[in-house]
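Human: For the file, kindly provide a plain-text protein record giving the amino acid sequence and the backbone structure tokens, at your earliest convenience.
Assistant:
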Amino acid sequence: MEERYIAAVDMGTWKIALTVAKISGDDVDIVYYKERPSDGIRNSAVYNPEKAKAPIREAIAEAEDELKIKIMQVVVGLPRCDVRQEIAQARVERTNPDESITKEEVENLKALAQDEYPLSDPDKEILYGAVAQSFSDDENFQLIENDIVGVISQGFEGNFKLFIGKKSSVKTIDKIFNDLGIAIARKYFTPGAQAKAVLTEDEMTGGVALVDFGAGATSVTIYQGKILRHYASIPYGGNVITGDIRTECGISPRLAENIKYAFGACMPEKLQTLGEKTIQIEGNEVEGFKQIPVKYLSEIITARVKEILDAILYEIQASGLADSLRNGMVITGGGAKLANIISYIKEVSGYTVRMGRPRHKFSAEGISGVFEPAATTSVGMILSAKEDELLDCIDPAEDTVPAGFGASFPFWPEGEGEKEPEVTVEEPAAVEEPAPEPEQPVIPEDAQEGDGGHLFTDEQAPVKPEKKPKKVKAPKEPKPKKPSALTVTWKKLLGFVDEMTNDMDKDEI
């Protein structure tokens, strides 16, 4: 069976992710996935193509060098913000009324609905795509696409939901890849692509809200009856949480992001022992040490997450489908890994909530990071592009691509940016006896985002009052003869934290 390759570029506010997959019939083998910091992108849209171009060029060059291939074309995602939805209708009278309606006729009707819809400003707007909501013929109403195909009728009509975005946002994407000499094979409206990677058929049938908690934008996509029924975007996400930490604590954005995932969590009242700890940041000769209580950090994060969650719940209510979400909410994107966020959303919204990771519809041996929530957009585009049997993005420089190539690219490349101050964690003194000076594990300056992101699992913070939280034993404190400080590596710090936490609920995967 002939092999082909698909390359997908996910251009996010905080990261660029490049994915390469080998396709053999129905089999998908992801052979490469790496992330690197993005630039020139805000609220999921490119505002400065010259800045955005550099990290994309570097990502493609690195993949070509490592896999010994030549990437000729890619599939990309469209911006998630500044998108509005409209309803359009179209009807056709069939030339062969005695023949069954074909899938091709349904697609032609969808194209007709898009072509005939009058954009309010064609110079500034562009159609991202259309989703069929229902069909009817002379006798039947409210049929879905699978039901209308095969029906014999004189004519039929369809109702479609159109998604309309800014033309300038699409033009900047075109400019970037034209300048790089790489063709764009497909552009995807990513909420639909993500559903392929994350949601189950039962979830899409019974009703579910897929929430992509990204860095610069948060989107809400509602499925019911296996159909995308509603979409809305919120022009902020994890970046505002990082910004609050940076402002309140007076530290750099890079350090604020690392601290957010290493020590941050929602629900400060559920932190138990770790809520009593203090993060100590080494300052300069004038400022000295900065101290940030972990509980105060959690209060900052929870306040901003509540604001984002309120906007999410508002959009769900506005859809008119709030009471139809039998399968609750699925939270994906980089922000989904924030500790305790799943339990917090459960408690505030009343819905069942799970973390959305790419489902095992593909193989990815030795590829790090591809089953994380942040990779759902990339994986979704690969699965969507796979359905086009003629699509092949790669011109191999060698006969084969080594299986298992690729590893997660450090979020902040070594040596990039200014050196960050050392950070230590102080433990409170025991009450019953004089305590020695607390251990001070030091976070090295190259600590990466996502390292130790789950200090406390979401399941540790019970939502129902009658369910008692599982007791967690605090680690035994050493009893040296005199106060001392111990410097440990980042890896040892994670082990120190894991002793005070429960294992992550495997059902989330």
